[in-house]
Design a protein that fits this description.
291 residues, alpha/beta, five-stranded parallel β-sheet, 11 helices, globular
């Protein structure tokens, strides 16, 4: 593995194709997830995926006792799960998904690995959509990686709890960026069945703002400009939130590309905030207009 690749948050399809071809010791994980009524991620993986890849099931690798979607699992749960996928603490992991946007759930898997102390993890820039579009190989053959030992240590600086978010409403110790679509942030449209709105003081940057029309990550200069336009200061503490802790990880990835590697994610996000925060801590234009 070339040293200049290790620690890089993004890898290109061309680079990954060559790494897969020569048998470089890395683990490729398909972290796709779709609404069950629309697509079946595991079935699509069985039909075609990047050669040597394994399926990272975000439904299994989560806290299944939580009432909220996709909350981080325990250290032991994560370590056991990724160990069975052949990932050790020394493994370079590349994650991707098959979303039509190019990338949707892969940054969540990227952030999860980082949250549990893994440094060598990258997102495939452009996702599976562009991998196929560029003519790189796919297979239906499922690999059987040798189990590995992974030791997980949660980095709490990359994670925010409900209590910490509540305290921040008054203290404003860190900036909050919400990655949901504008209508859900403002409270003018339903958020997957929930009344929408946002946490007081949050700034809205829809996650797709960081993606090009082809589904690749925008340039560092463009990403920096997006943050500047929203008056988000990357030199100061920053936490990302969304609906269920998934697209918030796009904020963390975008900031990471700009050199800010300590963006925290509010894991419970709006799904938890909606159910637990007092009414006056849920900012909504719709409620304001009704009043």
């Amino acid at each position: 593995m070339a040293p200049n690749v290790l620690g890089r948050a993004l890898v290109t399809a061309k680079w990954l194709s060559e790494a897969v071809r020569v048998g470089t010791s890395l683990r490729v994980l398909d972290a796709s997830w779709y609404p069950p009524q629309k697509r079946n991620a595991r079935q699509e993986f069985k039909e075609r995926h990047i050669p040597g890849a394994s399926f990272f099931d975000i439904e299994e690798c989560r806290d299944q006792s939580s009432p909220y979607d996709f909350m981080l699992p325990s250290e032991s749960h994560f370590a056991d799960y990724v160990g069975h996928l052949g990932v050790s603490n020394d493994t370079h992991v590349v994650v991707y998904d098959g979303d039509e946007l190019g990338t949707f759930y892969a940054p969540r898997a990227w952030w999860m690995f980082r949250a549990f102390g893994h440094k060598e993890v990258s997102v495939l820039n452009g996702g599976f959509k562009n991998w196929v579009k560029e003519g790189h190989p796919v297979t239906a053959e499922v690999s059987q990686p040798a189990p590995a030992v992974f030791k997980a240590k949660l980095n709490t600086t990359l994670l925010k709890t409900f209590e910490e978010m509540m305290q921040n409403v008054g203290s404003l110790r860190f900036q909050v960026v919400d990655s949901r679509p504008e209508g859900r942030f403002r409270g003018t449209e339903l958020d997957q069945g929930l009344e929408s709105g946002h946490i007081p003081g949050a700034v809205n940057i829809p996650f797709h703002s960081f993606l090009t029309e082809t589904g690749h990550e925008k340039s560092i200069e463009e990403i920096q400009q997006i943050f500047r336009e929203k008056k988000v200061d990357l030199s100061k503490p920053l936490t990302a939130t969304c609906r269920k802790g998934v697209t918030a990880c796009h904020i963390a990835l975008a900031a990471y590309l700009c050199g800010k590697r300590d963006v925290a994610v509010y894991d419970g996000s709006w799904s938890e905030w909606f159910h637990r925060a007092p009414p006056h801590y849920k900012v909504s234009e719709l409620k304001r207009n009704k009043a």
